Amino acid sequence: MKKPKYVRLDRIKKTNSKYNILFGKRSDGKSYAVQEEILNNFLATGEAGSIVRRYEEDFRSKRGATYFDNLACNGEGENVIRKKTRGEWDRILYDGGRWYLGKFSEELNRSVHSEVPLAYKFALTSTEHDKSTSYPTIKTIVFEEFMSRDCYLEDEFVLFLNTISTIKRNRSDVKIYMLANTVDLFCPYIDEMGLTSFRTMKPGDLAVYKCGEDGPQIAVEFTDTAKRDKEADSYFAFNNPKLRMITSGEFELPLHPHAPEKIKSDMIRFRFFIRFSDVMLQANIVRGTMGPFLFIHPKTSPFKETKKDLIYQQEPSVSPFVRRSFRSPIFPIEQKILFLVKTGKVFFSD
Which of 13, 115, 274, 302 maximizes the CB count within 10 A of its CB? Predict the structure, then answer.
């Protein structure tokens, strides 16, 4: 089967899921696909959409004003708005946190827009301010860039669900699309939503999850579009694996320093463990020829936890040897670990 040039919603819509997650390489048409879906629904039934981002700043100035611009000039240079409205409208205008169908009026010598908006904006940081307003026409919710390469809000998943609750109220006919580039393999939404096979998905995979008997159905698609033009990708042909996210859709992983010397068993002075999400890591304090350092590698053999193993993990525990942060050392060995972390004496197997 020939790969599409840009992302299409056909496959994921067939699952009839309430939550629809699309992630993949940059500029493959994820946003365009849902923008066109919002436009089609609005023209056919009057149903509106909503665009969700983390911060109000994400909508200010040109960020909000240009969001739907691809519909006025898509990858083929076509004005989809003019085509679908048969010339009545030719652009989408942003005004007061809402998007409207628009056009330029020769008579008034200015842009004018439709009376009814086709989409509304929502910021997770402003959820509390939107609770008292009703949005009965919104049937499509789009959360842009749910994966972040920088940071997430505190209790962000709860804020996201509160925003959805504000928009949909008691209605059960609302579809939610969550879009992202492959920038964070450990995005908290993966575990919060129970996406157990997310980290092993390959381009083209489509997985469907059912959250219990009464929970929502979630469809996840690792988008797989036609290869980009090699000439265009030559702009990013540098020796940095982070750039593969742009050209091939691989997850963006940071570069980490490898062990500065060959490690022998008699050089290991202490070992502890790091449990992060579904990954178990082993960390060794190594006495190297140039001084001590930390060496971290995946724990490949079965983990047989003892009562005296020092473990760092996010989940709380009553054990004094299970710690949640490097920053608050209690035992002398933790002070040594913190010193090595702060001074950058940390190396990795891969």
Answer: 274
Global model pTM greater than 0.90: no
Sign of the torsion angle spanned by Cα atoms 282, 279, 161, 99: positive
Provide the pLDDT confidence category of residue 246 given band limits of 50, 70 and 90: low
Joined together, the tokens standing for residue 301 give 């053999």
Which long-range contacts (C-beta less than 8 Å, at least 24 apart) are formed by 66-72?
Answer: 67/35, 67/94, 67/99, 68/35, 68/39, 68/92, 68/99, 68/119, 70/31, 70/32, 70/35, 71/32, 71/35, 71/36, 71/39
Long-range own/partner contacts, residues 283-291 (CB < 8 A, 24 or more apart) = 283/337, 285/333, 285/336, 285/337, 285/340, 286/259, 288/260, 288/261, 289/261, 290/260, 290/261, 291/345
pLDDT tens digits, 172-214: 899 999 999 988 888 889 989 999 999 889 999 999 999 877 8
Using CA atoms, how far residue 148 sits from 152, 186, 315, in Å, is 7, 10, 22
Tokens of 135: 């949005």
Residue 166 has phi, psi (to 5 degrees) of: -60, -40
The residue behind tokens 């265009």 is 232
- The Cα–Cα gap between 202 and 97 comes to 37
CB 72 within 8 A of CB 32: no
Distance, in Å, from the CA atom of 300 to the CA atom of 348, rounded to the nearest integer, reads 14
Give me the pLDDT at residue 1, please: 60
State residue 277's pLDDT score.
Answer: 72
Q: How far apart are CA 187 and CA 180, in angstroms?
A: 10
Q: How far apart, in whole angstroms, are the C-alpha atoms of residue 259 and residue 280? A: 19
Strand 48-53 relative to strand 119-123, pairing:
parallel
Tokens of 35: 């923008």
CA nearest neighbour of 272 among 321, 208, 211: 321
